[in-house]
Write a structure and sequence with these properties.
By secondary structure, the protein is α/β, with parallel strands linked by helices. The protein has helices at about 5-35, 60-75, 90-95, 110, 155-160, 175-180, 190-200, 230-245, 245-255; strands spanning about 35-40, 45, 50, 60, 75-80, 100, 115, 120-130, 145-150, 165-170, 185-190, 205-220, 220-225. It has a 5-stranded mixed β-sheet with strand order 5-1-6-13-7. The chain has a 5-stranded mixed β-sheet with strand order 10-9-11-8-12. The longest helix has about 35 residues, at about 5-35.
Length: about 260
């Protein structure tokens, strides 16, 4: 074998090793980039927490701004995944998503399936009724009435406890409000900020809030039970955002008041 041939074979060998190394580095970079994406599930019809902008079609709202800020603080790119509310926890358990940010109340039942972050918003339930309805003044007055709720929510759970009430579940809050307008239900039971936003955004004079706020409850960001590392990172990022003033800015933007 000539020296020239040996040199050519060695050159090819070295080049192949270098290319393999580059390929390995490329794969590592891709895996690293993948690891930095945080898939967050939400049901985007829960304004002002999450909804789709009519013009840009982007998912916007308090939860959306907050979870993106949390992701940025953690060094993750946040990818929003739209799902039905009752499908969020199953999607988290199956690994389809990494977290849930969807105005989800921290309840004992849900906490058996997921790990919640520290509370980031305190809410409560109210009812929306027609403006000319002067008989429904409290949740007790809903006994035997037709109640519209969003499926899978704590509002739905509470409505089902009301004696002889006929509870109608809808996939989204706007569908429940439309049914109220059409006279198909006597009231809609949902979270206070959602009801307030609906009335303010639509400017409707056909509906109003009624009754005292029921069941003050906290919202939390949910992560999988097995992913304790992510849960800890979310809590730390949330603490950091509260300390540096970013949380307050986001809160002011959507609720026009300090937290």
């Amino acid at each position: 074998m000539s020296k020239k041939l040996v040199a050519i074979i060695l050159s090819v060998f070295v080049l192949s090793v270098m290319l393999a190394g580059c390929g390995g580095q490329s794969d590592q970079k891709q895996q690293s980039a993948k690891a930095k994406v945080l898939k967050v599930g939400t049901e985007p019809s829960f304004a002002p927490f999450e909804f789709q902008d009519e013009n840009s079609k982007d998912y916007v709202g308090f939860d959306m701004d907050l979870v993106k800020a949390i992701g940025k603080q953690m060094g993750y790119e946040v990818q929003i995944v739209s799902l039905g509310f009752d499908g969020l926890i199953p999607a988290l358990e199956s690994g389809q998503i990494d977290a849930i940010a969807s105005g989800m109340s921290i309840t004992e039942e849900r906490a058996k399936k997921v790990t919640f972050s520290k509370p980031y918003y305190k809410s409560g339930l109210t009812m929306v009724i027609k403006s000319d309805n002067n008989t429904l003044k409290s949740f007790k007055d809903l006994e035997g009435k037709q109640i519209g709720v969003q499926i899978g929510t704590t509002g739905a759970d509470e409505a089902k406890k009301i004696k002889d009430a006929k509870v109608r579940e809808f996939n989204t809050a706007p569908e429940a409000f439309l049914e109220l307008k059409n006279g198909g239900v006597d009231a809609v039971v949902n979270d206070l900020p959602v009801n307030e936003y609906f009335l303010a955004k639509t400017g409707t004079k056909d509906a109003k809030l009624a009754g005292e706020v029921q069941n003050a409850e906290n919202y939390g960001i949910a992560t999988a039970k097995k992913n304790t590392e992510l849960s800890e990172k979310v809590n730390k990022a949330l603490d950091d955002l509260k300390a540096n003033g970013e949380y307050e800015k986001i809160y002011m933007k959507w609720f026009n008041k300090k937290p």
